[in-house]
Design a protein that fits this description.
It catalyses: a 3'-end 2',3'-cyclophospho-ribonucleotide-RNA + H2O = a 3'-end 2'-phospho-ribonucleotide-RNA + H(+). It holds the Pfam family LigT_PEase. GO terms for molecular function: 2',3'-cyclic-nucleotide 3'-phosphodiesterase activity; RNA 2',3'-cyclic 3'-phosphodiesterase activity. InterPro entries: Cyclic_Pdiesterase (IPR009097), Phosphoesterase_HXTX (IPR014051), RNA_CPDase (IPR004175). The chain has 194 residues and is of the alpha+beta class. It has one domain: Alpha-Beta Complex (Cyclic Phosphodiesterase, Chain: A), CATH 3.90.1140. The protein is built from three helices and eleven strands; from the N terminus they run βαββαβββαβββββ. Strands 3-1-9-10-11 form a five-stranded antiparallel β-sheet, with helices on one face. A four-stranded antiparallel β-sheet has the order 2-7-6-5, with helices on one face. The chain is globular, with a radius of gyration of 16 Å. The two termini are 23 Å apart.
Length: 194
């Protein structure tokens, strides 16, 4: 199973980010990601044996995220990947601490950890031709109180996402998990189309 940890926006934040994507698309071209797929990747876990899923769920249950707010105030462009993204000027230490604690515990179980720098962003456009001429839209505040474990399912039309578990609140409060076969959020609902 191809898995990653992410911050998953609520409807209001999702709608605003999608509005930014549509606006940038008019100028930059490329492909707008569907609103339902917008997220901020905390850690890419790569291919994980399904038998290891209970270990991941247990780690999530004991690795809470202290609530915080992210202010998104600029758009960026990675020319080598042709991606337009939304970014925040500052990332709370609590977010980095939760991410690092989770990955440290996951590594301690013998799992390989993908080494990558943490550049918090939300991808808005893929295959974009250029950077937006106005990289400073009106600020958007995203209040976060948890994170999710996501299964990225490969299909001929691109990846589809299934949220397998989410954690909100303290070490055991607000934790819920679904089986990969019976996700509460169907993969097709989060498919990337285009």
């Amino acid at each position: 199973m191809r898995l990653f940890l992410a911050l998953w926006p609520g409807p209001g934040v999702r709608a605003q980010l999608h509005e930014w994507a549509v606006s940038a698309h008019a100028e930059c071209g490329g492909r707008v990601l569907r609103a339902q797929t917008l997220h901020l990747t905390l850690a890419f876990l790569d291919e994980v044996d399904p038998a290891r899923l209970p270990v991941l769920l247990a780690l999530m249950q004991r690795t809470p995220l202290t609530p915080f707010a992210l202010t998104f105030d600029h758009l960026g462009y990675w020319a080598d990947r042709k991606i337009v993204w939304a970014g925040a000027p500052a990332v709370p230490e609590s977010l980095i601490a939760t991410r690092d604690a989770f990955l440290s515990q996951w590594c301690a179980t013998g799992a390989p950890v993908v080494t990558q720098s943490f550049r918090p962003h939300v991808t808005l456009l893929r295959h974009a031709r250029r950077a937006p001429s106005d990289p400073h839209p009106r600020s958007l505040v995203w209040h976060c109180d948890g994170y999710v474990l996501v299964h990225s399912v490969r299909t001929p039309r691109g990846p589809h996402y299934r949220v397998l578990a989410e954690h909100h609140g303290g070490p055991s409060d607000g934790f819920s998990a679904t089986s990969p076969e019976k996700s509460a959020m169907p993969a097709t609902q989060y498919g990337i189309v285009g």
